[in-house]
């Protein structure tokens, strides 16, 4: 499979005021909990250096099917319920197709 077939997903979340630490801990745990998902190549979470209420997921999937299975997983369904208490508004989700890269893709 070529890298251009990889689905790249970004998701932005904003913590409720005062909930940044709790959300960060929950997101870090979610990354660990989802590590076994088939077709998930890279799953990372980042906290904005200038706005600690903003978090970004950066994800690589072998296919759109793998992404849909991740969304339907028990881990993500459970986490989404918890996020309702920790986040403001809806997550901003975007999907991308990789067009060029250097370096290795995590597996």
TrEMBL record:
Keywords: Monooxygenase, Oxidoreductase. Pfam families: ABM. Its EC number is 1.-.-.-. InterPro entries: ABM_dom, AI-2_Isomerase_LsrG, Dimeric_a/b-barrel. The keyword DNA-binding does not apply. It comes from the Bacteria. It is an enzyme of class 1 (oxidoreductase). Residues 7-95 form the ABM domain. GO terms for molecular function: monooxygenase activity. PANTHER family: ABM DOMAIN-CONTAINING PROTEIN, QUINOL MONOOXYGENASE YGIN-RELATED. This is Quinol monooxygenase. It comes from Halodesulfovibrio aestuarii.
């Amino acid at each position: 499979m070529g890298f251009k077939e990889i689905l790249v997903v970004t998701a932005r979340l904003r913590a409720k005021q005062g909930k940044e630490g709790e959300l960060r801990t929950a997101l870090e745990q979610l990354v660990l909990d989802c590590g076994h998902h088939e077709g998930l190549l890279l799953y990372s979470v980042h906290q904005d250096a200038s706005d600690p209420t903003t978090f970004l997921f950066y994800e690589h999937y072998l296919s759109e099917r793998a992404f849909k299975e991740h969304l339907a997983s028990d881990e993500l369904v459970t986490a989404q319920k918890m996020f309702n208490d920790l986040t403001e508004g809806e997550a901003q989700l975007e999907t991308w197709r990789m067009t060029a890269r250097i370096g290795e893709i995590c597996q």
